[in-house]
Design a protein that fits this description.
- The chain has one domain.
- The chain is globular and about 45 Å long.
- About 75% of the residues lie in helices and about 0% in strands.
- The chain is mainly alpha-helical and about 140 residues long.
- The N and C termini lie far apart (about 40 Å).
Length: about 140
């Protein structure tokens, strides 16, 4: 991928193009993010730096596929979980609803898969309660 701007343009074509050839080209170019675990850090980079909701959606849905289709280490799954919780806490209110929904789906899926692996996955209920009480105290 040449640049973040190029990636964002491809993501927009992937999600909005009416041309099936253009969409298929974007999908084949971006597929590496969802099939290769080496791209997990790039997905986090996209979440941290991309400006378009389509790029954020690509990163979130790619992380979801990675979690579902690969046997990731416990440490990596906990890192992704903590990253998503912190990301939602810091950037959630400014994101498009479809991006928030995808990130919540990722958090739920990683929690489900890790529930019996480590007690830290079970802390999501307390963390969500704390997060929601902080949001409510602002309003």
């Amino acid at each position: 991928m040449e640049s973040l701007a190029h990636l964002e343009a491809l993501c927009e074509r992937l999600y909005t193009s009416q041309d099936s050839v253009e969409r298929a080209h974007a999908e084949s170019t971006l597929k590496c993010f969802s099939v290769n675990p080496d791209y997990i850090t790039q997905c986090q980079y996209i979440l941290d730096n991309a400006l378009t909701p389509y790029a954020l959606m690509l990163a979130s849905s790619s992380l979801l596929k990675q979690v579902m289709e690969h046997s990731l280490s416990l440490k990596l799954r906990l890192d992704i979980r903590n990253y998503v919780i912190n990301y939602l806490a810091s950037r959630g209110p400014e994101l498009q609803n479809f991006v928030v929904g995808s990130l919540i789906q990722l958090l739920c899926r990683i929690t489900k898969f890790g529930w019996f692996d480590d007690d830290r996955f079970r802390e999501v209920v307390n963390e969500a309660t704390n997060f929601l009480s902080q949001v409510n105290s602002v309003f």
